[in-house]
Write a structure and sequence with these properties.
Blueprint lengths: L3 H8 L6 E2 L37 E6 L4 E2 L3 E13 L8 E7 L5 H6 L2 H7 E6 L8 E8 L2 E8 L5 E11 L11 E4 L5 E2 L9 E6 L6 E8 L5 H10 L6 E10 L4 E5 L7 E6 L16 E6 L1
Parallel strand pairs: 1-9, 2-4, 4-9, 10-12
Antiparallel strand pairs: 2-3, 4-7, 5-6, 5-8, 7-15, 8-9, 10-11, 12-15, 13-14, 13-16, 16-17
Length: about 290
């Protein structure tokens, strides 16, 4: 994964903001997660650890100059609402990075691309929030100290820190239509009947690599092979347009994404466009699965 913190600090250090409250994001194709039904309290002693507690909620307000978010968040399953100011002039792609214990923000900025990936855990993110729009996500956050990044489409960043506390015990998982499996290797397995609408669970089954689940509409007469070919050299306009998805998560991690109502008829992809440590996009290595919307 490219060390965006290092790249940005070298290029335009004056534009990096340390929001005292928070910030979030990832590379241009980051995606979102969501949803939220509350569980009821279970009085059975043996079942008290089951999913019976309403998930905690957090709100993030996005503008051109700051990411307004609590300095502390609960751990475990958390519903997050992203709200972009109607006056914002930029898009917002957000990502959560949990820093390994003892790792500082300055260490991340100085790390090489190879070192960066060994210093953090990828905890998820979103695709894009534009002016006046909102997105709802459900994260499964590990306790610890986080660096959160908000990219726009020109890779300008807002950056901040937050601390995630202990996990909320017994919080209910969102009700999902099925599970999108990322990996192992450069493959994406979609559940039977996947149509790109509603709420889906996303899990990373890869033993070593972070992955994301981007959802994109293919241009007319284009296929997944065209998307893979484009990702190899990035020449010309992309043959896919991102319409949603869930951001990068490390191996063994999970999240939930609400893809909204049914998309217009056409051919779509679920794909991972994260760059590896060598800079090659996972999409360029064939990490995409096509599905139709009829």
């Amino acid at each position: 994964m490219t060390n965006h913190l290092k790249q940005r600090s070298q290029q335009q250090p004056s534009t990096i903001r340390r929001a005292s409250r928070l910030g979030t994001a990832l590379t241009g194709v980051l995606l979102l997660t969501g949803v939220a039904a509350c569980g009821d309290q279970d009085s059975a002693p043996q079942a008290q650890a089951e999913a019976t507690v309403a998930r905690p909620k957090s709100e993030i307000k996005l503008s051109d100059t700051a990411v307004d978010m609590p300095a502390q968040m609960p751990g475990g399953l958390v519903d997050v609402q992203l709200d972009a100011s109607p006056s914002t002039k930029r898009s917002h792609h957000l990502a959560f990075f949990r820093r390994n214990d003892g790792v500082s923000v300055k260490q991340l900025e100085k790390a090489s691309d190879a070192e960066f990936e060994s210093l953090v855990t990828y905890e998820g993110g979103n695709a894009q929030v534009n002016a006046g729009a909102s997105q709802a996500l459900t994260f499964d956050l590990d306790p610890g100290n986080y660096t959160v990044i908000d990219f726009d489409e020109q890779q300008n960043m807002l950056i901040g820190e937050t601390t995630v506390g202990a996990r909320t015990q017994g919080a209910a998982e969102p009700t999902a239509k099925g599970t999108i499996k990322l990996g192992p290797g450069m493959k994406i397995t979609l559940p039977k009947g996947f149509d790109g609408s509603g709420v889906w669970k996303v899990v990373n089954d890869d033993p070593s690599l972070p992955h994301e689940a981007g959802v994109g509409r293919l241009a007319p007469n284009k296929t997944s092979a065209d998307a893979v070919a484009w990702a190899k050299d990035l020449n010309g306009p992309p043959p896919i347009e991102t319409v949603g998805g869930f951001g990068a998560i490390s191996p063994g991690h999970q999240g939930w994404v609400d893809l909204g109502p049914k998309q217009d008829p056409g051919n779509y992809l679920v794909y991972c466009a994260l760059p590896g440590s060598d800079g090659v996009l996972h999409l360029a290595m064939g990490m995409a699965t096509e599905f139709p919307v009829n």
